[in-house]
């Protein structure tokens, strides 16, 4: 059999793992009436010790969607208009004196949930840690959750009366 | 329209309001007392709270059940996009702002970390790749500075 002379022109076949969750989340965002592009969105960076554990936590437990994970040290997630960058501390993040960032601290993202008690209970059932249980704030009830690396995430549920006084802005 | 809320712990509400509104383009939304304020920049609502002791009011600044007080600092931060990073940095330095590092050039853009008066980090980002723009999530996203 004579080899196909055009064989040399063929591109190598690179196996690609299909990622249906990426396609699904992309489609959902593209089809939204008011995509984040129009609204602007907001970006927050969290440092994590274990990227797999962090991505699983935010996506499986808190409903984030993974947008991008180009390396073992970086992932980009979405939750509504929030873009959460997860970085494993590395040389790129070191200060001039060599200090590396680490997870933790008290500054945090706020995630609104429809039923705080049910959410807290479900998360506890899956082994999530809380810095504090549900407390009443001004107009909201809130709980302070920790991701697997110890970063705080504030869960909150607006109180009904607060809602009536100031309806949530349309998203 | 602000749809994303981030809470920062600050030791001085008014110094923080001044910093974020004067230097970083935030607008003050409310400041009911000297423990709490909210600011807005685009879709980001920044909730500032001053830590309170065990006898203080309940809420975002209260201590933990184990007595731990909340405090500013750490490394987690929000990121804001600026069109000309060098000019912004020069202007901020002129105003006496502190930086944790110098401008770092990553894959998707240039960035630097400025500190608010309480020592909280804020990441300033200037995209190089159009795909890395923070305000325009793209169908084929690039990598913002990692």
Residue fraction in strands of chain A: 25-35%
- Assembly of the depicted chains: heterodimer
Mean pLDDT over the full residue set of chain A = 85
Order of helices and strands of chain B: EHEEEEHEEEE
Report the uncertain regions of chain A. Answer: 34-39
How many helices of chain A does DSSP assign?
5
SS content category of chain A? alpha/beta
Total number of helices of chain B: 2
SSE layout:
The complex is a heterodimer of chains A (171) and B (146).
Chain A: H1 20-31, H2 36-39, E1 42-47, H3 51-61, E2 65-71, E3 74-79, E4 82-87, E5 108-112, H4 116-125, E6 129-136, E7 140-146, E8 152-158, H5 160-165
Parallel strand pairs in A: 1-4, 5-8
Antiparallel strand pairs in A: 2-3, 3-4, 6-7, 7-8
Chain B: E1 4-9, H1 13-24, E2 27-33, E3 36-41, E4 44-49, E5 77-81, H2 85-94, E6 98-99, E7 104-105, E8 109-115, E9 121-127
Parallel strand pairs in B: 1-4, 5-9
Antiparallel strand pairs in B: 2-3, 3-4, 6-8, 7-8, 8-9
A few lines on this structure:
Chain A is an alpha/beta fold and 171 residues long. Chain A is 25% helix and 30% strand. In chain A, a hairpin with a 2-residue loop joins strand 2 (65-71) and strand 3 (74-79).
